[in-house]
Task: structure prediction
Amino acid sequence: MKTEADNVVTADVDERQQGLPESDAGRDTAMQVLTDTRRGRSQWAEVWRRLRRNWMAMFGLAIIIVIFFTAIFAEVIAPYDYRTQNLRRIADPPSREHLLGTDDLGRDILSRIIYGARVSLQVGFVAVSISLILGGTLGALAGYYGGRLDNVVMRFMDVLLAIPSILLAIAIVSAFGGGLVNVMVAVGIATIPVYARIVKASVISIKEQEYIEAARAIGATDLRIILKHILPNSMAPIIVQGTLGVAIAILSAAGLSFIGLGIEPPTPEWGAMLSSGRHLIRRAPHVATFPGVAIMITIFALNLLGDGLRDALDPRLKQ
Amino acid sequence: MHKYVLRRVLLLIPVMVGVSFVVFTIMFFTPGDPAKILLGERAPEAEVQALRTQMGLDDPFFVQYARFVTNALRGDLGRSLTTRRPASQELFARFPATMQLAAAGVLVAVLIGIPIGIVSATRQYSLFDGASMVIALVGVSMPNFWQGIMMVLLFSIYLRWFPSSGYGTFAHLIMPALTIGTSSAATITRMTRSSMLEVVRQDYIRTARAKGLSEHLVITRHALKNALIPIITVVGLQFGYLLGGAVLTETIFSWPGVGRLMVDAIRQRDYPVVQGGVLLLALTFSVVNLLVDVLYAYIDPRIKAQYK
Result:
């Protein structure tokens, strides 16, 4: 006999299916994944294969790799030192000696952009790591243990979410001062709730699976279950959000530096360079233009890769 | 339905208490003595100490926080350390300008984003679709402070179409609104497209086509109406994002809003204004999200039915 409770459950499932319609294309890809896995390819090789076919994502990845190497080998690539001032060549337009011109103190803009890649990538990756570690831990605990802990953690996340993240970062930096470390921490803290929510959602969807029950049955500790079984299986949304998160973190940090709250001179930070070119906009527009182009290319590449990863990791979402 | 709205409104209270706590804590640990800022660096120590006692700055943390919250509930956010006027007065004077800018930004985003998203979805993989998706991605990738400066360069300095900064007329609003709205427009375009694509695959769309409705009717009546629900959520979230982005955009265009007031206040260590500004913008953001959720429930009968 069907009880009322059964009906409620069925209705609930129906609604969920409505919310996540699985397209025919999605089902095909899912089948593909299944057969590929049977052939013995690992899940990540499969993701890589799908990513490789997406030329936009590969284009993004290529740009990011180039920027990475630029950052690592800045000393070798940059034509000048980023600190060298030449007061006889202030705000010179692009020329053969200075391909992107010079800034308000006569420093070579190209060299500063090259060194700036170091700062921006560092800020982006460290800030995301901070919010991933803190937010991920909170989200995993909330999702795994549920109950009161979940309630306390998620209500706190609601509070942080109620403050637009750039405002929260501004408040933190204005209190504790600018500088590379503070900016990374501020930007990182401001986006904690995003990761907490994502990790919590995937932990909840995974923790009822049979293999988790099996792990528990053979006596695995909670920590081991979370780290060894749940986390690896909830990587997909984390990787996607992390990639896009690096882009957002770089933008936020540049924004903070732009209003004078971020990374301090003479460190070549793209947002700060842009800001110093603002008052020269009439006389020497190139000073503000090029750092912005550098930011845009970096963010664009990260977005391309993030979108591609989303499609590759979750074939159901691909359209 | 009323119960749902009431519950959402009541939920706002603990969230705002939490926000006030976070903001107060951050500002409490800010180095620098407000009494010294008020009296100047060279004020005699005894005078500074007297003011500290008078302002209650030597009280324990929670006593100060309780005072801050009770005062804030009465609309008293303390006095600006630079102008000596009530911080709430300063903030409310600037608030309309910020709302104007954010609303104009959302309008720009919706007017650009939704139509392009729909056309892109109906002509998936066409040249138009490809081009608009690339442009949208560029739009999300552009730092808005840089875009603002580039627009000043193009439209104020070279073309002389719009004033480069200031406030008051429609011409002053155009560039700031475009600057603040571009990345939201791009986000909304992408969201509209994917939401529409999701909906067009549903059976009821096939039914609508099968019974011979014109493509126009199928798209506007059947598809768009259902695709709109996730889009509205995104529009609501974008509004909050714009309130944050206002800080940068207002700085570029000398727009007399809360954002610029806060940036100036931060430079002068005028912490009551910073504190109040964050609180005010967070409250606005929460209220907008609440309105969106209510609207959401209103247009989606499935949600409405749950709270009947």
Chain A touches chain B through 48 residues (CB under 8 Å).
